[in-house]
Specification:
Length: 385
Amino acid sequence: MTAAAAAPPADRRDRMRQVAGALARHGLGYLVGVVGLERFVPFHRGLLGHPRRAEAYTRPEHLRMALEDLGAAAVKLGQIASTRADLIPPDHARELAKLQDQVPPEPFGAIRAVIEGELGQPLEDLFASCDPVPIAAASIGQAHAAVLPDGTEVVVKVRRPGVVEQIEQDLEILQGLAVAASRRWERASELDVVGLAEEFGRTIRAELDYVREARNVERFARDFADDPAVHVPAVFWDTTSPRVLTLKRIRGIKIDDVAALDAAGVDRPALAERAARVVLRMVFEHRFFHADPHPGNFLIEPGGRIGLIDMGMVGSLDDRTVDQLGGMLVAITRGDADAMVDGFLALGIARGRVDRARLREDVEHVLGPYYARPLGEIAIAALLR
C-alpha cells in the first residue's frame, strides 16, 4: 500500500484534527498522545500543554467542554461515562453529568424543516402550537413542548439535522482511537476500550431511530400497565417517524432535586423504595430495562408517581444472566465469598487469567462489613463502587 493510499480521506483528517485540537485546547494533550493523534496537532504552537487561563477551569470542566466542542457522539459518550463510577473518578462523573441537558440547541428553523419534511405537512397543521424554545436539548435531538389540535399537551422530540452522518464518521474515528489507546496504554487494554467503543456504537445507532424508541416506550407501558406508581407516556403515531417522536407530556420534578421534592411534600424514603422496585422489576421480571438512568429521565409527579422518559437507550437480559445476578445478591446476604467469585467469573467481569484465591481474599475484604445483614440494610450503591 502506498503512502497516499494509506492516508485517510480529507474530511476524516479534518475531523481528526478537530478532535486533537479540542483536546489540546482544553489542556488534555496527554490524551492526544494516548490515542495517537500527535501528527494532527501543531506542536510548534505549544498546544499540548495547558491552555492559557486554564486555571479558570478544572480538568473535569475542560473535559466536558472538549466533548461539547466535538458534538453529538462525543457528548453522548460523556453522558454514558457520567454514569460509570467504575471507570471514571467522581469529580469527572459529576461534571460530565452536566452534559445531560445542557447542550446548545439547534435553531428552530432547522427543527421546523425536519418536522415538516418528515411528516409531510406544515407545522401549523400538525400542531395547534409548538414552542420554538426547547425544553431539553440533547446530543442527538431536542424536545419541544407542543399542543395537538385536540388540545393534548405533548413533547415533540426531533433529531438534529446532519447528526447521523457526523456520528457515523465519529464512531469510525473512535474505534481507531480505541485500538491505538489499547496498544499504547496498558490500562486502556485492561478496560477493553475497543469492546466499549463497539458497544457504544451499537447503543448510539439504536438511539438514532425514533420509531424504535417509540416501540420501546410502548413496551415499557405494557410492562408497567399494572403499576399505578409508574407513568409511561403515550405515543402519538400520526406525528412520529424515524426523525420525529411525539409523546404525551409528563410534568414532574427531577428525581435528584431534593429541595423540590421536599417542597412538594414527597415522601423521599417511600419514593426511593418505589424507584428501586421499578428498576428491579425491569431487570429481574421484565428483563428489559431503561439503560440511560440519569435523573433527568425520571420525573416525579405530584403524589410521587414516577414518570419515565427518554427510552432510546435500553437493554435486555437473558435468563442465565438474571439468575447469576440474583445469585450474587443472595451470596452477599449469606456472606458466601466463593459464590461471589463464581458469579464474577460466570458474568465475564474478570478478563484473562485470574488468581482465584487472591480474588476470594479481595471479595472477603469488600464484603466483610455486609455479612449476615439483611439485604434491605445494605447500601448497594456504595458496595458496587
